[in-house]
Each structure stands twice: as C-alpha cells, then as structure tokens.
User: What shape does this take?
Amino acid sequence: MTGSPNVVSLLSLKDKVAVVTGGARGLGFEMMCALAESGAQVACIDLLAETGAEAIAQIEKENKVKGSSWGCDVTNEEEVAMVFNQIAERHGGIDILVTAAGINKTCPAADYSAKDFRKIFDVNVTGTFLCAQAAAKYMMETGRRGSIITIASMSAHITNRPQPHAPYNATKAAVLQLTKSIACEWAPHGIRCTAISPGYFDTEMNRTILAQQGEEGVKMRETWETETPVGRLGTPHELKGVVVFLASDASSFCTGTEIVVDGGYTAW
Assistant: This one.
C-alpha cells in the first residue's frame, strides 16, 4: 500500500515549538522532556522561574534543542498574553501547548474557604483557559495548525478516596468540558484540543501530601495502590508517549477527546 506516512515520522516533533505550563517539575517536566526528546523546541512557563530555568538548562544539554524559561502567573491575562508573544518571537512560533500548571488542597468540603475555592478555580480553570486562548489566538493570526493539550484528571470522572478535595475534582471536570468546547470552536482553524487525565502518580506533590499526613499518609498510599487495578502508582515517564502522540501528527484526527492514564482506576 502506498501513500501511507511512516508512523515514526508522524510522531516526530522536529521544527515544532512546544509551550508547557507548570513545566518546572513533576508531570509537567516529564512531558516537556518528552516533547524535547521528540525534537521540539520547548518553552517552560512556571511561577517557579529559577526551577524552570534549571529544567530548561538540563533539557537543552540532554536533547540539543532550543529552550527558554518564563516566570508567569497563568491567572494574569496581561502577563499570559505578553509571555506568549515573547515566546513566539524568541522561538519563531508556537505549535503545541500543554497546560500542566495546577494546584490542589486536601480539605473537607464543609471547611473549604471561599478564598481557597476561588484560588483553585483561578489557577486550574482560568489559567488553563487564558493560556489556551493565547496560543489559539497566535495560531489563528498566523494560520498555524496546532495542538493544545490540557491536563485534566481522573478526578473529573470519580470522587477520590480517602482524601477529600471536592473543589479540585470540580476544576478538572471543568477543564475537560472546556477542552471539548474549544475543540469544536477551533477545529475549523486547524487547532486540535485534547486532554490527558492522569490517575495517581508518584510525584513530588503527591509525596508531600502523603508525608504531611504521617501514618495516615502511609495508609492513604496503600489505598491508592489497592484501588488501582495495576496495584501501584504511575511513574511520571508513563505520560511521555501519550503527550507526544497528542502533540504530533500521529493524532491528526483526534480532537475534543481525552486519554485517561490511571492504571485502570476508573475501570472499576
């Protein structure tokens, strides 16, 4: 059969420019590494500007691609617009966006303050929207086809246990619906919008949450592992293939959908 592209070439991100919010550490860093390993230039957006700069220096050295680090509050519309313009100027364009910036707070819903509730929605939902909007505006203005990948969560579908964080779950459901909505609006412009929904991963953030709980944290981790069919937490590198697939032409007919990476948790 002739005319079918080679799958390896479809997965290549050579000559592409990828922006990753929350890329300084954790899952964002691993996904940023994957994009660089596949040939993309990478721009890290994170409030942890110094950590982001260190991450980019490591990626540039290991992958021989151009990188840049930007300190930015993703909830600030003016900052986001300015940084995306600067990234496009520095790198010559924007083709891919991964919105991994997010926060969480474990707290019973009855005790959750309005201030904390608003903050988590501002970062997880408004921040995702503003960055997706900035990337899409650039792509539309330049006629550049692109891929926007939001980071939702299995928490968009289930209620986690034993730890309570209802507002976080609500933000991830909002991110998922936002992704579907903008996918439909922006598809005519050649912009694909998809979501990755991770389950429990062995990240620094999760280890901190567990450590703060002391003995209860040990039991909590056991519950997470028991509730996951594969019997363990995910390791961050297990998102690498998924993000490259969604960023690349290998997923050219995928938009408005999500890939759940949860070790089977939501299959029960």
